[in-house]
Design brief:
Protein-Tyrosine Phosphatase, Chain A; 5 strands; single chain
């Protein structure tokens, strides 16, 4: 039985360019896990057997909408954008947008490369996946930006093609369609048309954002491998170890 949770999906079974695939049952991405029904909680805890929840949200986001964690799961907080000079990934920021959404998101994706909190956070996240292997779901507010980058990192390290990486990233726009419409209906009635339009745009992902993330990596570190070692401080054999753990 499959239970619907906003923007929840597995990274399992994605093919690698060498003919393997990511092992199922270990890696899941999602939107925030708040206001869960008993059925949804049971699905995560018992059907998917999730043993670790990684929350990329800020302290304010966590305080405003606390997570619901079941007893058999470890809860890990990694505030990816704590040190960022630009953060347009939270609902609070989206609600204050009136224009320049695209530029703001590009700046946020740049911060997910260069900010100290992002470098520390993604190091901590990726290292824990390998050193303590257990079924894990990771998320932010919408499961689209901070989570989208985390998923792209996993897939890139695993050896998945760029085409598949971007296809997974863009699935968010379909997966969040109903949730986004609900947010716009709830908050849009008190907004100007320009604000409402900006909110709708901010709730979407655009492949240009993820392309910019990878371009900033190349600009600052030369290539992805140097980014992993210099920015994320991962060991030279991390990619090999990650593939051994998560690719079959």
């Amino acid at each position: 039985m499959t239970v619907t949770l906003t923007n929840l999906r597995t990274l399992g079974h994605y093919p690698t360019i060498t003919g393997g695939e990511i092992k199922p049952g270990l890696l899941y991405r999602s939107g925030q896990l708040v206001d869960l029904t008993a059925e949804q909680t049971a699905y995560l805890a018992d059907t998917l057997n999730i043993k670790r929840v990684v929350d990329f949200r800020s302290a304010d986001e966590r305080q405003q909408q606390p997570e619901q964690i079941w007893q058999t799961a470890e809860y890990q907080v990694i505030d990816i954008l704590a040190d960022a000079t630009a953060n347009n990934a939270s609902l609070g920021e989206m609600l204050t947008q009136e224009g320049h959404v695209r530029q703001g998101m590009l700046e946020t994706y740049e911060q997910m490369v260069v900010s100290d909190s992002a470098k520390r956070g993604y190091h901590q996240f990726l290292t824990a996946l390998v050193t303590d292997v257990k079924p894990t779901v990771f998320h932010c507010f919408a499961g689209k930006d901070r989570t989208g980058v985390a998923a792209a990192l996993i897939l890139k390290i695993a050896g998945v093609s760029d085409q598949v990486i971007f296809a997974d990233y863009l699935k968010t726009n379909t997966a969040r369609q109903a949730a986004n419409q609900e947010i716009i209906a709830t908050y849009g009635k008190d907004m100007t048309p320009a604000q409402k339009e900006a909110l709708g745009q901010a709730l979407l992902v655009d492949q240009a954002y993820l392309k910019h993330y990878f371009a900033v990596i190349d600009q600052n570190y030369g290539d992805f491998d140097h980014y992993l070692q210099e920015a994320l401080a991962l060991t030279s054999d991390f990619v090999t170890e990650f593939k051994h753990t998560f690719v079959k």
